[in-house]
């Protein structure tokens, strides 16, 4: 298990929060990344976790993927039921990169593709599309797993399959206005964070990856 301690990330997040003029809370930087393998499948993920009040994020990619090219990415989010929405930034910040925003919808979840050019509500981003692999909810958590086409490469950037990538996340306890609509508005985040890691632990044999996401809708 690799323990992250990134003081520069904390300073950056504090700066962003002060610029927005909002009371966004920056979490303590005792975050961890690890390799997580689902015992029921052949899929292993790069897993990020911080604590019981923050979602667990898991990312997987096919091992055939190349840096700054178009390839599908798999994102699994396990969120406490206390959270109304969860966001994941593929490029490490709120602006100018694909944003995956998800929220609970009954016993399932809604996945929304967004893009932000400034510190305002992100708008729809049609260049990234999603297919849901699974979504569920119980008494303590809601979970969604989705495959994205268009999250590995974007105007001005893309994921590295050999170097270190920086990802970011945001959460809020406030429910969205229209849970059943991917175009719903949502409130400003109440917590933000980021982490940097290579995709070494996220690589899955291509055939296994494609078989796993084949039935996603």
What does this structure look like?
The termini are far apart. The strands form three sheets. Strands 1, 3, 4, 5, 6, 11, 12 and 17 form an eight-stranded mixed β-sheet that branches. The chain has a seven-stranded mixed β-sheet with strand order 2-16-15-7-8-9-10, covered by helices on one side. A hairpin with a 6-residue loop joins β4 and β5 (56-62). The chain is built from two helices and 17 strands. The chain has a single domain (2-213), classed as Cellobiose dehydrogenase, cytochrome domain (Immunoglobulin-like), CATH 2.60.40. It is globular. It is 10% helix and 44% strand. With 217 residues, it is mostly beta strands. It comes from Parachaetomium inaequale. Residues 36-204 form the Cellobiose dehydrogenase-like cytochrome domain.
Outline:
Keywords: Signal. It holds the Pfam family CDH-cyt. This protein has 217 residues and is mainly beta.
Summarize the topology.
Blueprint (H helix, E strand, L loop, with lengths): L1 E3 L2 H14 L4 E2 L4 E7 L6 E6 L6 E7 L10 E8 L4 E5 L9 E7 L2 E8 L7 E2 L4 E9 L3 E9 L3 E2 L2 E2 L5 E9 L18 E8 L4 E2 L1 H8 L4
Parallel strand pairs: 2-16, 5-17
Antiparallel strand pairs: 1-3, 3-4, 4-5, 5-6, 6-12, 7-8, 7-15, 8-9, 9-10, 11-12, 13-14, 15-16
Organism: Parachaetomium inaequale
Pfam families: CDH-cyt (PF16010)
Protein name: Cellobiose dehydrogenase-like cytochrome domain-containing protein
User: How many DSSP helices?
Assistant: 2
SSE order = EHEEEEEEEEEEEEEEEEH
CATH superfamily: Cellobiose dehydrogenase, cytochrome domain
Biggest sheet statistics: 8 strands, mixed
Average pLDDT value? Answer: 88
Q: Which CATH class is shown?
A: Mainly Beta
**DSSP strand content:** 35-45%
What is the CATH architecture descriptor?
Sandwich
Which of globular, elongated, flat, extended, rod-shaped describes the shape?
globular
The radius of gyration computed from the alpha-carbon positions, rounded to a whole number of angstroms, is 16 Å
Oligomer: single chain
Number of domains: 1
Quickly give the structural class.
mainly beta
Tally of DSSP β-strands: 17
Query: What is the distance, rounded to the nearest whole angstrom, between the alpha carbons of the first and last residues?
Result: 33 Å
């Amino acid at each position: 298990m690799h323990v992250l301690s990134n003081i520069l990330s904390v300073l950056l997040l504090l700066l962003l929060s002060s610029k927005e003029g909002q009371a966004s809370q920056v979490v303590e930087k005792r975050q961890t990344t690890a390799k997580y393998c689902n015992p029921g499948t052949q899929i292993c993920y790069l897993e990020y976790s911080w604590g019981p009040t923050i979602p667990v994020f898991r990312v997987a990619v096919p091992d055939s993927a190349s840096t700054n090219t178009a390839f599908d990415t798999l994102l699994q989010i396990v969120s406490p039921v206390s959270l109304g929405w969860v966001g994941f930034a593929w490029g490490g910040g709120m602006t100018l990169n694909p944003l995956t925003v998800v929220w609970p919808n009954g016993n399932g979840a809604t996945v929304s593709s967004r893009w932000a050019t400034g510190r305002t509500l992100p708008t729809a981003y049609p260049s990234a599309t999603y297919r849901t692999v699974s979504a569920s909810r119980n008494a303590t958590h809601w979970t969604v797993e989705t495959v994205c086409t268009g999250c590995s490469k974007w105007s001005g950037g893309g994921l590295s399959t050999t170097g270190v990538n920086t990802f970011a996340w945001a959460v809020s306890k406030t429910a969205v206005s229209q849970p059943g609509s991917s175009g719903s508005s949502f409130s400003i985040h109440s917590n933000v964070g980021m982490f940097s890691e290579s995709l070494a632990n996220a690589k899955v044999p291509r055939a296994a990856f494609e078989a796993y996401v084949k039935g996603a809708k």
